[in-house]
Design goal:
The complex is a heterodimer.
Chain A lengths: L1 H12 L2 E7 L3 H17 L4 H22 L14 E7 L3 E11 H15 L3 H14 L11 H9 L4 E6 L4 E11 L4
Antiparallel strand pairs in A: 1-2, 2-3, 3-5, 4-5
Helix pairs in contact in A: 2-3, 3-6, 5-6
Chain B lengths: L3 E3 L7 E5 L4 E8 L4 H16 L6 E10 L1 H14 L5 E7 L4 H13 L4 E5 L1
Parallel strand pairs in B: 3-4, 4-5, 5-6
Antiparallel strand pairs in B: 1-2, 2-3
Helix pairs in contact in B: 1-2
Classes of the chains: A alpha+beta, B alpha/beta.
Chain lengths: 184, 120
């Protein structure tokens, strides 16, 4: 049972204040948000930073919920619906961290979208947001295509991401969104 | 006209649209699972109201938080309001919430409606 202590130590060393691994639905999203919110409230965090963290959490969680419906074709396999959501906190920043399976075909497009986002400054992101909101239609999955743009705007830093090889069909998409605790 | 009265929950806003008493308000949090479905009755109500509105309409939007899927639907609500003669939108934001203030400014640039900004 060494893994229990190992996992605990990992959480401590990575300064993780919340970890959820499993199936993601709107109901789990609400529970996770409520838990994280209580944590932020009890730590007496600045309300502006609290709002930004909450904002990024919602978009990150709803991204997972929407895209987990794409999986499940291989019920019972590791690639089914399982995803991971974490928040870390140190003196300087909060990080919202997510990981979920994504079809390899989609990884290419996602990479170019995220690289484009990361090439923009504050005003560039604002223009992009306005352009998308004017022209977008809500997708079948309920998304407006604005989640990553909004996360980048609220974060004010580059979105960090990697893809790990899972199998022939899927990659595991890892995302890290930083929210500074130092006031501007 | 019938009153549209939706009680807020942890992921949907409170909505009160009352022609007779001249109360038009969206407040609270908006992060529903299906934002298009949630806002459909609101937009339908406004479309019906636009055909026979009060002489002036003060529409208050007092959201503490909304997700990006809701932001698209809020723009749809505002676009529907463009058809209401005598419309004015009051955009409320918490006095230290710059992001909510900026969001209101962005919406005001996307529609042809007078906006007034208020803090709470």
């Amino acid at each position: 049972m060494n893994f229990i202590y190992d996992l605990h130590r990992t959480m401590m060393s990575q300064k993780l204040i919340l970890v959820y691994d499993g199936d993601f639905t709107q109901e789990t999203t609400k529970s996770i948000l409520a838990m994280a919110e209580r944590n932020l409230d009890s730590s007496g965090e600045d309300s502006g930073i609290k709002r930004k963290v909450f904002n990024v959490m919602v978009e990150a969680l709803q991204n997972i919920v929407k895209h987990s419906s794409e999986q499940g074709t291989q019920a019972g396999s590791l690639v089914s619906r399982s995803a991971i959501f974490m928040i870390s906190k140190d003196d300087k920043r909060y990080c919202v961290l997510t990981g979920n399976p994504i079809l390899k075909g989609k990884a290419v497009l996602l990479t170019s979208n995220l690289n484009e986002l990361n090439s923009k400054d504050k005003d560039g992101l604002k223009e992009m947001y306005k352009e998308i909101i004017k022209n977008t239609q809500i997708s079948e999955k309920g998304g407006a295509g604005l989640g990553f743009v909004d996360m980048a705007r609220k974060s004010g830093e580059k979105l960090e991401f990697t893809f790990s090889d899972m199998d022939a069909e899927y990659d595991f998409f890892c995302l890290k969104v930083n929210i500074s605790r130092e006031k501007e | 006209m019938e009153i549209l009265n939706l009680k807020g929950t942890e992921d949907t806003p409170t909505i009160l649209l009352d022609k007779k008493n001249g109360i038009f308000e969206i407040s609270g949090r908006s992060l529903p699972e299906d934002s298009a479905e949630f806002y459909t009755p609101v937009i339908e109500w406004i479309n019906a109201y636009a055909s026979d509105p009060n002489s002036s309409t003060e529409f208050a939007i007092k959201l503490e938080y909304f997700n990006t899927a809701s932001s698209k639907l809020i723009l749809d609500v505002l676009s529907a309001l463009e058809e209401v003669k005598g419309i004015k939108v009051f955009w409320y934001f918490h006095d230290d919430d710059e992001d909510m203030e900026e969001a209101g400014q962005e919406f005001s640039e996307l529609v042809e409606i007078p906006f007034e900004f208020k803090t709470y």
